[in-house]
Automatic annotation (TrEMBL):
GO annotations of cellular component type: cytoplasm
Subunit structure: Homohexamer.
Pathway the protein takes part in: Cofactor biosynthesis; coenzyme A biosynthesis; CoA from (R)-pantothenate: step 4/5
Protein name: Phosphopantetheine adenylyltransferase
Source species taxonomy: Bacteria, Pseudomonadati, Pseudomonadota, Gammaproteobacteria, sulfur-oxidizing symbionts
Amino acid sequence: MPVAVYPGTFDPITNGHSDLVARAAKLFDRVILAVAVNPGKSPAFDLAQRVALAETVLADIDNVEICAFDNLLVEFVQQRGADVILRGLRAVSDFEYEFQLAGMNRRLAPKVETLFLTPAEQFAFISSGLLREIAALRGDVSEFVHPEVQAALRVRYG
């Protein structure tokens, strides 16, 4: 079976992300969670912290590898010997952007496929940005993230 790369900033990793990884891990020999540097964003957590949190959250899934990347996604995918870019679609609003990305990635690397997965129903509304906002306002995010992520958000936002 092919190898899939699931890219994102994962700032922070949510239960929606981990649900998607767990389901993808059943479909692929290996899933690489690729944590993006993304210089266009100002992340709440630095790259090393995002990687460490993802390693903690996904530690019980054997065929998952977590690594950082700072180059073009299709280059990273090819360097890792992967065949598939895995993307999550939460709502119709995600589709247009993701469709555009998939088209560009196909143009840049025609042999790399993009596969879309939707999250489980209870995670469809979760986004990292929304959780950062709730945490910054001292709201309870325990239902949406791993306890280690919740603790990191508490430290980050006081």
